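Let's inspect one such protein example.
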Amino acid sequence: MNLRSLMLLLCLGNAAFAQADTTEMLSVKEKQQSPASLTAPQNNLPEEFINRLKEAESGDVDAMLDIGLVYMDGTDYLPVDSTKAFTWFKKASDIGNTDGDYYLGLLAQNQQKYEEAARWYRQGAEQGDAYCQYGLGFLYERGLGVKQDYKQAKAWYSEAAEQGQSYGQFALGMFYHDGLGGDVDYKKAREWYEESAQQGVASAVNNLAVLYENGEGVEQDEERAINLYRQAANMGSATAQNNMGDFYYEGHRLIEKNDYQAIYWYKRAALQGNSDAQFAMGRGYEKGNGIGKDLVSAFDWYRQGADNGSAPAAMKVAEFYEQGLGGVKADHNKAIEWYMSMADDGIPEAQIKLAELYLAGQLSDVDSQKVVSWLLASEKSNVQSKNQLALFYLTGTGVQQNEQKARELLQQSAFKDVSDAQNNLAVMYATGLGGEKNIFRAMMWFERAAKAGNSAAIANLKLLQEHQGVTASMLKYTDNVQKLIKK
């Protein structure tokens, strides 16, 4: 089980970016927080706010930042006002305060004005502000407002980390872990994760667990890894919570399988927006594992996961539309829209599904060449793509018919235990289609497919075993191929 999740830090405001899973969100400002009195709901404007505003107008830089924060975030007594927030942060910046630069960059980033964000972060970073250095590194890592440059990102993260900025330490550890902007160095990754973890960054604790689980730069120690995952989960890391859910869902030699515990951890992660956990919650409700079966709730969680970028969840949403499950009215066109969107994004499972629908005659508005191009792009790394592509060559759908090529692809899929491919390959051996005729190999593949429960193979094997004089033409491909042949 690979539980590694190297979260790309989503530590700047509300910007939604993720490399794998989002687990840690840096509060709007760790360097400076508005006084509690400024955020307490009171009638009209609280006296404390009015007094703080007067101090800001008198030139108190901390008060300027406090007032800017109130306008940036909004409160029960003041709505969000980005223009006024900018004005107060700019006043602080104009008198040389780098906190003002940081907040101006954060404000711009939250508005997706990345070039402007980069200018403000750079202004503070070049004056040595660790938070601005981290922010600039983040933009370089993602290529937001600047050209993506891992070496520049690493350099700025390093500047921030050396000053003790906890998220800069985590990011630098991640860069050493993955070899971004330089070579992989597990020892340095561990050192920076530990520095960050000591300051309470749960993501760093999670990634320390990864090192110990995989034995990367340390002696492999699964027990310590699980303890660290649990620690990170209790600290609030959504990725670690999802990891704990996986342990309990799948079972481990050190953790007994427990669906109820799995749901407990998945739900904690899902409520934080972790898309893998949201998919897991949908699965739990769909199957009734660890929680009552409820297809409506299953669809709701699948939809949340899909909206947050989970391809498995999006596949489930499409399936629910296709079959009319979970209180959703069956809508073939809506299902196709979901599958098409994922296919265009390069999701092999969606491409395979559309290939199946095309061969079944349920996808008339899509060019066969497009479907074939999807399968060609993924067949080397995805055995189901290979199996589907074989059927296109076998039937001459969207490509020039090539029975030899079809047989080669089916054989490759059969060796990967795709039972449909095993049955269809057996028929080709029995008939001599696409190559030599060999009844012994045909029997071998029928037996392997039948052992896997393939209904077509079971019928073919029974026919061969119970009747004499069976001819190759009497043997049947899987139903989807038979329908294509009849056309």
Summary: The mean pLDDT is 90. The two ends are 45 Å apart (CA to CA). The CA atoms of residues 27 and 206 lie 19 Å apart. The first helix runs from residue 36 to 39.
